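Exercise 7.
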Amino acid sequence: MSEFINLTVGNVMDEHVCCAISDKKHQLGVEKKRDWLKDRISEGHVFRKLDANGKVFIEYAPLESAWVPVVGENYIYIYCLWVSGSYKEKGYGTQLLQYCIGDAKKQGKSGVCVISAGKKKTYLSDKKFMQKFGFEVADVLGEYELLALTFDGGALPHFADEAKKLGVQSSDLTVYYSPQCPYIQNCVLEIKNYCGNENIPVDFIEIDTLEKAKKVPGIFNNWAVFYKGKYVSVQLLNENLVKKLLGGG
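Solution. The predicted structure, written as tokens, is:
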């Protein structure tokens, strides 16, 4: 039976980080992810995964140090809970989430929160799954929802005021991104190449500090897309998706 392990400062440079486990084009992103994780672990960031060659993991952090435009006191924020392929339907997602909840209680936290949506969206946790464990809607921003499981009935977390703008001044394609996800570096490269070849203006805004992350003017879990001044989505973009977004695909 496979066991779970947590990444530490001692093993983060050697263990795989699940997402881009076998895709060579994402290796630059993997290394940036490792570096980012190494700096975050001392802040209480947890990356727990199945000790197997698969994409089975949960990633969470104290909300105060989580790189998301969500604010609150004494909560844990879940960035990602992912179980894929042949590992589905084996209870791994439940085990990972229960570990996170148990860890939050041991730390004396007030609860756990996560960004989701009324209708299931790629790259966000499934609302129906989270509701099975007692998560409820704590805040709503457009089609997105902040779900929270509270232990003490205290004040709930909420989206930051900046996030509620859901827009930027520029009408150009604008992408906010962080090094947290291994897929992001290749997405940035594809978008740059396509927009450069087509003479399409595009702005990339790297989120490289906690302060910047808390002030993103829209929903952000490591990636946020704006176009014509309006917030579009958290979905990672490749060349084909950019074409579709811009009306050329």
